[in-house]
Amino acid sequence: MSSDPAPILRFAPSPNGHLHVGHAFSALFNARLARRLGGRLLLRIEDIDPQRTRPEFVDAIFDDLRWLGLSWEEPVRRQSDHFSDYERALERFGEAGLVYPCFCTRAQIAAAVAARHDWPRDPDGAPLYPGTCKRLSEQERARRLDSGLHAALRLDMSAALALAQDRIGWCEYGEGEQPRDVTAEPALWGDVVLARKDVPTSYHLSVVVDDALQGVSDVARGMDLFSATSLHRLLQNLLDLPAPRYRHHRLLADPQGRKLAKSEGSPALRDLRAQGVSAARLRADLGFAEPD
Ligand code: GLU
């Protein structure tokens, strides 16, 4: 008998809108994998953003997933319960001299790079941070903080890379069984924000801390987060956290070939339900007809 603990997977939606068909694919993908691996499936509500999180979206997530026929381990995990864990991680980065406060607004960053048409962008399309606040004197930093200005905390990427082990990578399974080694390219993200001005953490930091805290062994999520994994592996490396196996699955496209996303008006599961589409029909359409 194997002494390896049961694999742990998670479906981790952000409650800032209703789940759509792409989410259904991801949740079903995780559930099937958990069954096949004899693992546990966690549900994690990624609710760090008070501006965008709404309680009715959390309830709707439960309703939609139950309608799909999914179940998950209780208790439901919530990122909003873990701000002190994120704070501790930020303190570690601070003690290692890997973060600095940044007072810039998005508009200031855009203006700083406007004259440079070839200015590099991160994998999400945002201009790499030009380092304005990295060059501030300690005195000026203290003055701004004392005057009550809000600061984000940015990772000093060159310092982080210098401290990290030589080569960082991960084991990528895609949708299959055969892993391949991927070399991480965290430098693509530049001096990324680890704690926002309005929220004392960020998606990247929270997801890395939570996956470790919750013992997640297999991260199965959409290909849109493939590039983020480079950064996540760097953060794990710096925080001495274990590396999960990664399984980035395809993104569903609408008939015009565009990625399905809340913002592009792709059908919400609740709308399909209201139109009389059955969960069995949707599951079958997505390739998850029972039994596995
Ligand atoms: N909360 C993220 C989303 O809804 C997913 C994060 C993840 O799976 O790492 O897109």
Tell me the domain tally.
Answer: 2
Runs in which pLDDT lies below 50 for 5 or more consecutive residues are: none
Strand portion = 15-25%
Total number of helices: 10
How do the helices and strands line up, and which of them pair or pack?
Elements (H helix, E strand, L loop, with lengths): L7 E4 L9 H17 L2 E6 L9 H13 L5 E6 L4 H13 L3 E4 L3 H8 L24 H9 L5 E4 L1 H7 L5 E4 L7 E4 L9 E3 L7 H11 L4 E5 L3 H13 L6 E5 L19 H6 L4 H7 L7
Parallel strand pairs: 1-2, 2-3, 9-10
Antiparallel strand pairs: 4-5, 5-8, 6-7
The structure holds glutamic acid.
Glutamic acid (GLU) binds next to loops.
Structural notes for this entry:
By secondary structure, this protein is an alpha/beta fold. The protein folds into two domains: 1-81 and 256-292, HUPs (Rossmann fold, 3-Layer(aba) Sandwich); 83-252, HUPs (Rossmann fold). Helix content is 36%, strand content 15%. The protein has ten helices and ten strands. The chain has helices at residues 21-37, 55-67, 83-95, 106-113, 138-146, 157-163, 203-213, 226-238, 269-274, 279-285; strands spanning 8-11, 40-45, 73-78, 99-102, 152-155, 169-172, 180-183, 193-195, 218-222, 245-249. It has a three-stranded parallel sheet. It has a three-stranded antiparallel sheet with strand order 4-5-8. Helix 7 crosses helix 8. The longest helix is centred in the N-terminal third of the chain and has 17 residues, at 21-37. It is globular and about 65 Å long. It starts with 7 loop residues before the first strand and ends in a 7-residue tail after the last helix.
